C-alpha cells in the first residue's frame, strides 16, 4: 500500500512538472514578440518591461521557466492587463462557483445514478433495466453544449421554472436564490454524470451479483437491501472510480459551457473572457490552476481506490 | 521442415477463421438499426462534401429580402437566423467542420497513437515502458483544458484545431491499440509466423493488424464521436473556427445568445436544429460503434 | 435428542430455463436426514450436487428456475418459500460452506466483519460480544493468531485458511444443519483431511446434522452415516454407508470407487477416470443415463430407464443389472475404446 502510494506520488510530481512546463511554453505559441502580443493595445513600454520581468523573456528559456515557476510558488500568477486584477484574485473569486456547481451536480448525479443502477441490476434485462439502459445510451449523444441550450430554452425561457442567463446570485448574498440559479446548470452537469455512473455501475453490479460471495451473503440470511449496499456496491465501484479522470474532464468542459451560457462568473467564464480580450497572462494562470487541480483530484481518486478495494494496492 | 510449420500455420488460421465464421453465421447480425444509423452518417457526409453543388443559398450571406429569425417556411426549410441566413444551408456547411475535425482528428490520433502502439506492444522492452508511462502522463489531465489553452494562444484555423485534437486523442488510442495488440502478440499464429522467419513488418501488417482491426474501427468511431463533442464544446465557447464560417457548435452558441433577446429577437430554431443535428450524428456514431463491437465480439477495453 | 427428523426431501426437481432449452439439473430426488447425522452426496462433476444442495437451501435464483416437489425442514415446507421466511432459517438453522473458498468470501471486507455480520443480524448481540464469539470461532476452526486475522482481508489468507473462515462464518449462529458443498475442493491433500476432520469434530460437539457433498467416495466412506450417489441429476444409489461399501449395486458407484483419487491424482483434480462423459442434460437419453459408459449395459438399459427401487431396507438403486445379483449379471461387453 505504502509503495503503491509512493509510486503514484512520483508520477504525480512528474505530471505536475510536465504540466507547468507545457503551460509556460504556451506563451511561445503566440506569433511575434510575446511581450507585445500579450499586452496588445496595452503595450506601453512600462508594461512591456513588467511582462519581460515576469517572464524573464530576455534570459535563456530554462531560466525563464525557473523565474516563472518561482513566481508561481509565491502565488504570483501575473496580472490582468485590462483590469489590473491579479490572476490569483480572479481565481479566488471565480473558483468557488465552479466548486459549487461540481459539488451540487455530483450530489444530484449520485443520488439518481446509484439507486437507478441498483434497481436495474437487480432485475437485469427486465423492463426498467432495458428502459434505463436505452435512455442513457441515447443520452450519451447529448453533451452539455447540446442539452444546456435546449433546457434553458424549455425551462428558463418558456416555462420560467428557472432563472435565465445573467441572474447569478453569490451564495454569500442570498442562499436560496443562489441555489435557485445553480439548479439548472447543476442539472445539466448532473445529466452527463448520471449517464456515465449509471452505465458503469449497472454493468459492474450485474457481474458482481453473480459472484459466489453474493450467494454466500444471501445464505447468511441478509436482506437484499443489505446485500446490495454492503456487499455488492463496493466491489462494483472500481470502474466508476477509474473513470473519474475522464469524468472530471467532461465535467470541467461542462462547467465552462454552462457558465458561458448562463453568464456565471466562474473560472470558465473568466477564462473565455480573458481569451476574447487577449489577456494571455490570465489565460495562462487559469490553465495552470485548472490543470493542476485536475491532476490532484485524479491523484486523490487513485488513493480512494486503495481504500475502496484493498485488492488494488496489493497487485 | 518449414512445410510442417506452414501446414500448422495454415491449419491454425483455418480454425480461427472457421470459428469466427461459425460465430457470425449462427447468431450475429448487425441489424436494421445499424444500417439506418450508418446511412445517416454517410448521407450527412455526402451532403457536407457536395454542399456547393446543392441548390442552397450562401451560408455566410444573409438574404435581406427574407424574414429575420424566421421559422421554417417553404423558402427556408429550417428558417433563418438573426443575420437573415438560411439555417439549413448553414447546418449542411457546418457539418463539414464536425466531420473534418472528427474524422481528421481520429486519423491523426491513429497515426500518432496507433502505429507506435502496435510496434511498442509487439517489441516490448524499454521503449514500450517509456511510451506507456508517457501515455498515462498525457491522460492524467483532460484534453479540453489543454486544447482550450493551446487554441487560444495558437489560433483557431480548422487545420490547427484538427491537429491539436488529434494529438490529444493519440494517448487514448495508443492505450487501446496497445492493449489489443498485446493480446495477439503472443498467440500461436503470430509465433508460428515468427518461427517461419517472417519480418516484423509483415507480422504486424498481415497477422496482427487484421485481428485488431475490429477493435480499432469500433473504438475509432467512439473517438470520432468524442472529438466531435470536443470540437463542439470549443465552438460553443467561441474557440473553434470563427464566424461567419458555420459549425454546429457556433450555431448553438449564436442561438443561445439569442434565447433571451428582446421580443422578435429570439430564435428557438437556431437552438433546436443544430442540437438535433448534433444529437443524431453522435447517436448514430455511437450505435454503429456499439453494434460493430457486439458483432465482432470486441470486449470493452478497460483503460 | 438424536434421531429427530430434521430434513425431508421428496421428489425434488430443478429445471433451469436456458437459452438452449430446459436443463433438468435435479430429477426426482428424495432424501431424509436426522439430527446429528451425516449424509454424503457423491457424484461426478456436473451431476447436480451443488444445484441439489442450493435447492434444498432455497438459494437458487427464482427467475430462471422451476423447482417442484417438497423440502421440509423440521416439519415445515420450505421449497419455494418466500425469501423473507428463508432468511429466518439461513445462518441460524441451516448454513452452508461453499465449494470455492477463493471466490466465496467478499474480497473487500475484513474477515472479522464477515464473521460477525450474521451474529449481529440474527442474534442481537453487541459489537464486542460478536467480536469475542468471532475470535473464539476462528480459534475453533484452527486459525493461528486469530486477533491478527480478524482484521485481514481474504486476499491475505491462503486457500485453506479461507475455507476455515468460511466454516467459521457458517457455524457462527450455531446452525442445526450444515451443508458442506465440496468444502475441500482446490485444497491440498493434507489440508483437505484437516478440514474434514475439523468439520466432523465440530459436528459432533454441536450435535449438528450435516450434508457433505463431494465427488470423492473415499472422503465420505469414513465420515457419513448414509450416502446418496448422483448421476446426471438422478439419485442412482442410496444406502447406509456400511451397506453401500459392503454390497454396492450400481456399476456407476463401482466406477466412482475405482476412480478414487490416488496420490498421483489428488482429489482436487476433477474426476476424469470414468471413461466417456456424462449425458447432456438438455437432451437426456431415454434409457439408463449411465448406459453409454456402463460396461454392463444391455439393450434394455438403452431403451428403458431403471427406476430407483428399494432392494433391501434402506438400500435403493436404479439399475437393471445390479452388481449384487452376481449370477444375473452379464459379462462385461468387450472393452470399450475411448472416443475422444
Ligand atoms: N444457473 C444455472 N443455469 C443453468 N444450468 C445450470 C445452472 N447451475 C448449474 N447448472 C447445470 O446443472 C448441472 C449440475 O451442476 P452442479 O453445479 O450442481 O454440478 P456439481 O455436481 O456440483 O459439479 P461440481 O463437482 O463440478 O461442483 C450442470 O450441468 C450445470 O451446467
Ligand atoms: S441400468 Fe444398465 S446401463 Fe444402467 S447402470 Fe445398470 S447395467 Fe449399467
Ligand atoms: Mg458443485
Please tell me about this protein's structure.
- The complex is a heterotrimer of chains A (315), B (303) and C (340).
- Chain A is mostly helical and 315 residues long.
- Chain A has 2 domains: 72 residues, no CATH class; 227 residues, MetI-like (MetI-like fold), CATH 1.10.3720.
- Chain A is 76% helix and 0% strand.
- In chain A, helix 5 packs parallel to helix 14, helix 8 runs antiparallel to helix 12 and helix 13 runs antiparallel to helix 14.
- Chain B is 72% helix and 0% strand.
- In chain B, helix 8 packs antiparallel against helix 10.
- The C terminus of chain C is likely disordered.
- Chain C has 11 helices and 12 strands.
- The site of adenosine-5'-triphosphate (ATP) has 16 residues of chain C, from strand 1, strand 2 and helix 1.
- The site of adenosine-5'-triphosphate has 16 residues of chain C, from strand 1, strand 2 and helix 1.
Annotate the secondary structure layout.
The complex is a heterotrimer of chains A (315), B (303) and C (340).
Chain A: H1 2-25, H2 34-39, H3 45-55, H4 61-73, H5 87-122, H6 127-139, H7 144-158, H8 175-209, H9 212-219, H10 224-232, H11 238-242, H12 244-262, H13 267-276, H14 280-308, H15 310-314
Helix pairs in contact in A: 1-14, 5-6, 5-8, 5-14, 6-8, 7-8, 7-12, 8-12, 9-10, 12-13, 12-14, 13-14
Chain B: H1 2-26, H2 31-49, H3 87-123, H4 125-139, H5 143-154, H6 158-185, H7 188-195, H8 200-236, H9 248-258, H10 269-295
Chain C: E1 5-18, E2 21-34, E3 38-43, H1 49-57, E4 65-73, E5 76-77, H2 83-89, E6 94-97, H3 111-122, H4 127-140, H5 146-150, H6 159-171, E7 177-181, H7 189-206, E8 209-214, H8 217-221, E9 226-231, E10 234-240, H9 241-246, H10 251-258, H11 299-303, E11 309-312, E12 315-317
Parallel strand pairs in C: 3-8, 3-9, 6-7, 7-8
Antiparallel strand pairs in C: 1-2, 1-4, 4-5, 9-10, 10-12, 11-12
The complex binds adenosine-5'-triphosphate, iron/sulfur cluster and magnesium ion.
The site of adenosine-5'-triphosphate has 16 residues of chain C, from β1, β2 and α1.
Might you state the CATH topology name of the largest domain in chain A?
Answer: MetI-like fold
Question: What is the tally of beta strands of chain B?
Answer: 0
Mind describing the biggest β-sheet of chain A?
Answer: none
**CATH architectural label of the largest domain in chain A:** Orthogonal Bundle
Largest interface: A-B, 57 and 49 residues
Mean pLDDT of chain A, as a whole number?
A: 87
Shape field of chain B: elongated
* CA-based gyration radius of chain A: 23 Å
Which residues of chain A form runs of ≥5 with pLDDT under 50? none
Structural class of chain B: mainly alpha
Low-pLDDT segments, ≥5 res of chain B: 1-10
Shape of chain A: globular
Summarize the biggest pleated sheet of chain B. Answer: none
- State the end-to-end distance of chain B: 43 Å
How many angstroms does the end-to-end distance of chain A come to?
9 Å
Domain count of chain B: the total is 1
Number of domains of chain A: 2
> Which percent range describes the beta-strand content of chain B?
under 5%
Amino acid at each position: 500500500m505504502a509503495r503503491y502510494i509512493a509510486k503514484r506520488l512520483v508520477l504525480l510530481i512528474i505530471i505536475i512538472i510536465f504540466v507547468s512546463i507545457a503551460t509556460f511554453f504556451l506563451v511561445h505559441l503566440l506569433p511575434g514578440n510575446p511581450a507585445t502580443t500579450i499586452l496588445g493595445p496595452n503595450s506601453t513600454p512600462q508594461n512591456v518591461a513588467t511582462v519581460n520581468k515576469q517572464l524573464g523573456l530576455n534570459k535563456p528559456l530554462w531560466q525563464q521557466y525557473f523565474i516563472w515557476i518561482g513566481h508561481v510558488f509565491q502565488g504570483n500568477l501575473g496580472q490582468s492587463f485590462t483590469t489590473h486584477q491579479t490572476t490569483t484574485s480572479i481565481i479566488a473569486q471565480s473558483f468557488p462557483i465552479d466548486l459549487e456547481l461540481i459539488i451540487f451536480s455530483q450530489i444530484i448525479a449520485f443520488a439518481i445514478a446509484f439507486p437507478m443502477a441498483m434497481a436495474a441490476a437487480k432485475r437485469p434485462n427486465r423492463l426498467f433495466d432495458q428502459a434505463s439502459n436505452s435512455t442513457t445510451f441515447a443520452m450519451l449523444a447529448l453533451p452539455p453544449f447540446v442539452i444546456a441550450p435546449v433546457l434553458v430554452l424549455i425551462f428558463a425561457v418558456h416555462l420560467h421554472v428557472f432563472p435565465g442567463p445573467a441572474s447569478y446570485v453569490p451564495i454569500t448574498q442570498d442562499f436560496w436564490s443562489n441555489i435557485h440559479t445553480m439548479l439548472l446548470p447543476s442539472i445539466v452537469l448532473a445529466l452527463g454524470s448520471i449517464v456515465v455512473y449509471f452505465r458503469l455501475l449497472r454493468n459492474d453490479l450485474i457481474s458482481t451479483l453473480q459472484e459466489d460471495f453474493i450467494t454466500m451473503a444471501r445464505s447468511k440470511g441478509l436482506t437484499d437491501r443489505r446485500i446490495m449496499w454492503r456487499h455488492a456496491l463496493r466491489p462494483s465501484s472500481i470502474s466508476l472510480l477509474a473513470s473519474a479522470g475522464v469524468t472530471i474532464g467532461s465535467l470541467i468542459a461542462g462547467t465552462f459551457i454552462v457558465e458561458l451560457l448562463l453568464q456565471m462568473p466562474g473560472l470558465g467564464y473568466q477564462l473565455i473572457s480573458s481569451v476574447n480580450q487577449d489577456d494571455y497572462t490570465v489565460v495562462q494562470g487559469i490553465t495552470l490552476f485548472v490543470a493542476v487541480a485536475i491532476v490532484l483530484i485524479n491523484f486523490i481518486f487513485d488513493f480512494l481506490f486503495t481504500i475502496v478495494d484493498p485488492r488494488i494496492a496489493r497487485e | 521442415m518449414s512445410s510442417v510449420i506452414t501446414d500448422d500455420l495454415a491449419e491454425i488460421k483455418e480454425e480461427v477463421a472457421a470459428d469466427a465464421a461459425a460465430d457470425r453465421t449462427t447468431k450475429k447480425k448487425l441489424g436494421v438499426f445499424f444500417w439506418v444509423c450508418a446511412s445517416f452518417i454517410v448521407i450527412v457526409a455526402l451532403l457536407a462534401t457536395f454542399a456547393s453543388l446543392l441548390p442552397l443559398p450562401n451560408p455566410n450571406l444573409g438574404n435581406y429580402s427574407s424574414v429575420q429569425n424566421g421559422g421554417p417556411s417553404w423558402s427556408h426549410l429550417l428558417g433563418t437566423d438573426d443575420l437573415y441566413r438560411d439555417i439549413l444551408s448553414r447546418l449542411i456547411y457546418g457539418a463539414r467542420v464536425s466531420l473534418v475535425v472528427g474524422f481528421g482528428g481520429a486519423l491523426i490520433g491513429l497515426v500518432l497513437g496507433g502505429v507506435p502502439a502496435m510496434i511498442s506492444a509487439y517489441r516490448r522492452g524499454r521503449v514500450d515502458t517509456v511510451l506507456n508511462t508517457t501515455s498515462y502522463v498525457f491522460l492524467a489531465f483532460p484534453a479540453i483544458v489543454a486544447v482550450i489553452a493551446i487554441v487560444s494562444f495558437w489560433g483557431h484555423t480548422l487545420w490547427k484545431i484538427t491537429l491539436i485534437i488529434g494529438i490529444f486523442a493519440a494517448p487514448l488510442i495508443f492505450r487501446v491499440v496497445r492493449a489489443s495488440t498485446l493480446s495477439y502478440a503472443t498467440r500461436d499464429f503470430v509465433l508460428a509466423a515468427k518461427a517461419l522467419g517472417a519480418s516484423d513488418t509483415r507480422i504486424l501488417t498481415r497477422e496482427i493488424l487484421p485481428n485488431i482491426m475490429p477493435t480499432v474501427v469500433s473504438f475509432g468511431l467512439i473517438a470520432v464521436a468524442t472529438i466531435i463533442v470536443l470540437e463542439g464544446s470549443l465552438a460553443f465557447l467561441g474557440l473553434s473556427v470563427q464566424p461567419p464560417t458555420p459549425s454546429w457548435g457556433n450555431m448553438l452558441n449564436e442561438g443561445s445568445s439569442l434565447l433571451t433577446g428582446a421580443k422578435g429577437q429570439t430564435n428557438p430554431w437556431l437552438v433546436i436544429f443544430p442540437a438535433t443535428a448534433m444529437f443524431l450524428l453522435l447517436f448514430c456514431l455511437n450505435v454503429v460503434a456499439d453494434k460493430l463491437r457486439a458483432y465482432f465480439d470486441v470486449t470493452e477495453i478497460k483503460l | 435428542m438424536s434421531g429427530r427428523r430434521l430434513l425431508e426431501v421428496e421428489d425434488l426437481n430443478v429445471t433451469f430455463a436456458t437459452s438452449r432449452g430446459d436443463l433438468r439439473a435435479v430429477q426426482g430426488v428424495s432424501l431424509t436426514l436426522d439430527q446429528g447425522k451425516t449424509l454424503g452426496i457423491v457424484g461426478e462433476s456436473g451431476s447436480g450436487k451443488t444445484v441439489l444442495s442450493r435447492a434444498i437451501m432455497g438459494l437458487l435464483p427464482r427467475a430462471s428456475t422451476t423447482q417442484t416437489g417438497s423440502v421440509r425442514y423440521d416439519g415445515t415446507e420450505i421449497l419455494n418459500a418466500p425469501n423473507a421466511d428463508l432468511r429466518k432459517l439461513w445462518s441460524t438453522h441451516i448454513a452452508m460452506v461453499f465449494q470455492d473458498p477463493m471466490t466465496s468470501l467478499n474480497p473487500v471486507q475484513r474477515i472479522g466483519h464477515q464473521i460477525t455480520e450474521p451474529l449481529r443480524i440474527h442474534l442481537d448481540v453487541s459489537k464486542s460480544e460478536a467480536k469475542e464469539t468471532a475470535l473464539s470461532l476462528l480459534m475453533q476452526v484452527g486459525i493461528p493468531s486469530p486477533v491478527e486475522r480478524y482484521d485481514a482481508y481474504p486476499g491475505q489468507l491462503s486457500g485453506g485458511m479461507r475455507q476455515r473462515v468460511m466454516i467459521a462464518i457458517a457455524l457462527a449462529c450455531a446452525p442445526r444443519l450444515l451443508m458442506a458443498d465440496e468444502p475441500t475442493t482446490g485444497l491440498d491433500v493434507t489440508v483437505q483431511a484437516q478440514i474434514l476432520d475439523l468439520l466432523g469434530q465440530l459436528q459432533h460437539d454441536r450435535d449438528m446434522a450435516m450434508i457433505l457433498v463431494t465427488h470423492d467416495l473415499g472422503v465420505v466412506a469414513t465420515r457419513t452415516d448414509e450416502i446418496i450417489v448422483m448421476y446426471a441429476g438422478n439419485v442412482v444409489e442410496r444406502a447406509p454407508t456400511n451397506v453401500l461399501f459392503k454390497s454396492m449395486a450400481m456399476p456407476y458407484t463401482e466406477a466412482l470407487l475405482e476412480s478414487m483419487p490416488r496420490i498421483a491424482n489428488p482429489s482436487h483434480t476433477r474426476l476424469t477416470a470414468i471413461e466417456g462423459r456424462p449425458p447432456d442434460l438438455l437432451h437426456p437419453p431415454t434409457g439408463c443415463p449411465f448406459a453409454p459408459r456402463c460396461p454392463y449395459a444391455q439393450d434394455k438399459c438403452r431403451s428403458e430407464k431403471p427406476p430407483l427401487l428399494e432392494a433391501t431396507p434402506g438400500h435403493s438403486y436404479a439399475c437393471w443389472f445390479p452388481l449384487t445379483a452376481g449370477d444375473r449379471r452379464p459379462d462385461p461387453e468387450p472393452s470399450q475404446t475411448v472416443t475422444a
